[in-house]
Specification:
Blueprint (H helix, E strand, L loop, with lengths): L1 H21 L1 H37 L3 H28 L1 H8 L3 H33 L3 H24 L9 H25 L15 H24 L1
Helix pairs in contact: 1-2, 1-6, 2-3, 2-5, 2-8, 3-5, 4-5, 5-6, 5-7, 6-7
């Protein structure tokens, strides 16, 4: 899991280095726009933290029905938040960038990035719930492999779309978003395939259509404190 955190941080560093060679304004615009991703990830972290607490207990006692229930609940919660962020970044990217800067060029470049990166939010939100299941169901090595492949692919696609390699269009800041969304799609597909092939991860997706008020209440009771802590810290940041 430490390796996964390092690999994820490596993507951001590579983004900055590549965009810095292309344009200082492009690097600055993406740096500002990623504050939206930063806030989005706070919600994902809080929800996945709650999921981890439940799945660890359920897996320990062999309750795969409970794992499927909490997976379905968290996937829907993360999906709702992701759709809200997707709508915001796709339809109101300039308004969002205007909150972060008053430089017109940065607003324009950042808007191009936000309009595309919103797609990755939806893909990432679902993938994160799968990865949480793997980490708690004795498949952490597989989740690390998937995460590592996604990061390496992201870095390669960054170079391709930022600089226009191998005949690809030179897209600059928007290229970073396309690379991220593409790698997140690959990550999600890999998560789905591995989850349903693994002997440790036994998910029943029929619970996606079942509501449990008791489970929802218990989940929010655990997740909201984590979310409140993260949001208060991020506002100060």
């Amino acid at each position: 899991m430490a390796l996964q955190q390092f690999m994820t941080a490596l993507v951001g560093a590579c983004d900055a280095i590549m965009l810095g060679k292309l344009s200082q304004n492009a690097m600055s615009a993406v740096s500002l726009a990623t504050q939206v991703t930063f806030v989005f990830n706070l919600f994902m972290y809080a929800f996945v933290t709650g999921e981890n607490m439940f799945v660890a207990q359920y897996y320990g006692k062999g309750d795969y029905k409970g794992i499927s229930k909490i997976f379905s609940l968290v996937t829907k919660a993360c999906g709702v938040v992701a759709v809200i962020f997707l709508i915001g970044t796709f339809f109101f990217p300039r308004q969002i960038m205007a909150v972060l800067t008053n430089e017109e060029e940065l607003i324009t470049l950042g808007s191009e990035y936000l309009r595309v990166i919103g797609i990755s939010y939806l893909l990432s939100s679902i993938a994160q719930t799968f990865l949480a299941i793997m980490k708690n169901c004795n498949a952490v090595n597989v989740s690390t492999l998937i995460n590592s492949v996604m990061v390496i692919l992201n870095i390669i696609l960054n170079a391709v779309f930022i600089f226009g390699l191998f005949g690809a269009p030179r897209l600059g800041a928007a290229g970073v978003a396309i690379a991220t969304a593409s790698s997140r799609l690959v990550e999600l597909v890999a998560c789905v395939i591995v989850s349903f092939m693994s002997k440790n991860v036994k998910l029943n997706l029929t619970y996606m259509f079942i509501r449990s008020k008791v489970l929802f209440h218990d989940f929010m009771k655990l997740s909201l404190p984590a979310l409140g802590n993260d949001v208060s810290w991020s506002v100060a940041f």
